[in-house]
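Hello K.,

You asked for the raw outputs rather than the summary table, so here they are, unedited. I folded two proteins back to back in the same session to keep the settings identical. This is the first:
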Amino acid sequence: MHRQSKSYLIVGQGIAGSLLAWHLMKAGHSVTIVDQHHHESSSMISAGIINPITGQRLAMTPQFDVFLAQSRKTYSQISAELRIDLFVPKPIIRVLRSAEELARCYDLNTTSAAKPYIAGIHKPGHYGVGIHDPYGTLTIAQGGYLQTQLLLTSLKKYFLAKGMLIDECLAYSDLILTNNRVQWKSLTFDAVIFCEGFKANKNLWFKNLPYSFAKGEMLKIEFESASLPDAILCQQQWCLPTQKGTYLAGSTYDRANINTIATPEGQSTILKGLNDFIPSKVRVIEAYAAVRPVMLDQKPVVGMHPAIPTVGIFNGFASKGILWAPYYAEMFARTTLPPLIR
């Protein structure tokens, strides 16, 4: 049975809004996006890392294979249609901090979920003198990073060329809502979906959700003397080689100062963490800050308002937006006005 096409107004063109718009459009729906530059979006300064084994406890991301399959499919489709290369495959080298972490690696290598993503558990010095690794390293396979700025700027041009994107700041007071229609100015839609990132805490319909936003800072740097493998390197901090010979490095996690201002304290935290496993002098080229749209339970919030069926939200993807958003966007697009997932 053919599903009826609907018209959607999407507020926000970060990773979440862009991928939701893409999947809705490809599912045959009509889409209009409203966004004014999205200059404070965490998406624009995201490193875009996809890593199956993360965190201080070296935890396997639940259902990683499912999310990875959909993200590869989505980014491959966008890359082919826009004629750009979005995803950069890179091994991920986790520099171990203790004998306990080393033991955890060997335990992981016995599990069916993690084993396909473990490329090697190496003794100290395996990657040369550029890395300080007294407990050795874990090399993680099938990782890499998405060029998020390239994705967003390319999709912006694509949406503009199709007449889908309006460069404007939407005022909530301009929306007229009923149980079956949404009117914004002279335009009428079946639903409005808010993809506003951390600005959702001001949203009239979703401001009381359990948000737990976290500010993150990131640096663009150059190492003065380090000889490093062509890989994403991580410990408490991470760094990845860009295609321009520099590195991106991060990050911090600050729940007390929810703003987009880069600070000396954030820079110091990142550089100190890097120096623990890359003992080289660093030149800082640029500093960035953004606010991650995190929910208290670390899960995204996706679907329609329980009392107003024409108002929806697609948010809360935190630092896993690059991995999670394609899956949830595809799910949203094939489910007519899905109920709120919490």
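The second followed immediately with the same parameters:
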Amino acid sequence: MEDKLWLETEDTHEEMDKPHDECGVFGIYRKEGKGVVAETYHALYALQHRGQDSCGICVNTDGVMKKYRESGLVTEVFTREMLMKIEEGSMALGHCRYAPADMKSRSNAQPILINHHKGSMSLACNGALTNAAELRDELEAGGAIFHATADTEVIAYIITQQRLKCGSIEDAVFNAMDIIKGAYSMVIMSPTKMIACRDPHGFRPLCMGHIGEDIVFASESCALDAVGATFDRDIEAGEMVVISKDGIESRKMKNACHDGLCVFEFVYTARPDSVVDGSSVHEARKLAGAFLAQAHPVEADVVIGVPDSGLDAALGYSQESGIPYGIGFLKNKYIGRTFILPEQKQRQDAVRIKLNAIRSTVEGKRVVMVDDSIVRGTTSAHIVNLLREAGAKEVHVRLSSPPFTDVCYFGTDVSKRETLIAANHTVEEICEIIGADTLGYLPLEACDKIAAGSKCKFCKGCFTGEYPIDPPKRKHINKYDQPLTLEMKNKVKK
């Protein structure tokens, strides 16, 4: 009930005006002994930014798996009392999930756990399939019964089907990778093995490390740091890595082509202390800010960043332009996502409670405000208004990504082009809507340059409408999003 109320009443909160990735995954394989629950908890805490709607842990104790999952933040679900109740094991999967508005259900929480006559299997996945609807139709026609709406259950059924034809779980997973299409980075656990795999275009990140002889997998390297693991390498696009008592085995799909890493990992999604496919996220955002300063210079007195993903880009803009960097906002970190407010005025005040301008930094000054993106425009209008009220003389908005004009089919929750302010308004119109003096986007060609250490190409479909693979023929539409209009802008200012 709480999630439903939040969706129906919220229309101005910061979290709804940003592109969201769907999940963070973690897996740990302990060669000898037990005690993997604490590491899994700490890793999920480090990956919390990738999903705040639900989380879960599945533990393997001598071949017997038990899952623990619920809606809410990691600290809300896995309290001290709950952690003490979880039986320890030698393997575990962890997952935290951001759910699109039309898929907020406890039944979609992960990891999922299935049992069949060849044994049990648990799976945690990040991404979205482009052929999920077709596969689901085929499976249901064959008698499959689904308990959730997420793509992960479809993947589990496909692997189970292949398992009936194959001699091993790793053969089943490898065969399934040829059947499922789209974006996926996932970790799978059988009674005796742990398997990590990544789609042949490498849309979503996945890395591997070790703690002594223990092997760990995670969506981002920051989770490895959180558990004291040493980073070994990224899982390659189209690669499957199998961990068992016999050691480590790797297989690679023949059609793998690492040309689809989501560029928004560097712009917004990943934590700045992570290294994704060979590039520091922090350095990539600074470089984006530098390119932004080159493309859209302006005479100003101070550069500020919008917490949190705009801070690094603002620093890069400042260093490149020579305009002093300042702390322009204080973010209240004690307000969670499920901050439910029934009245319109209270919902508008939520932005003030979560984010406040520092008057001494901006009063009487020409301000360059750097943020990562504009999706609907609601948040930007509120934040610019906060700066005006704090006495800013001019507000020049700079965005460390190109205009967000197209939908994403690979796990980022942007499902309707009509909701995207840049797809429906000119730069001048957006300036008027959000109340900015000027507006500048990162040039599209700079996207390929910000992640200097990466050896892969990027998916920029949300900026261009061109994707590494064909979009799905059928896509469930998120009916809750609404674009910001000039009429809505007047409500923001009241």
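Residues 151-165 form the longest helix (15 residues).

Happy to rerun anything if the numbers look odd on your end.

Regards,
P.
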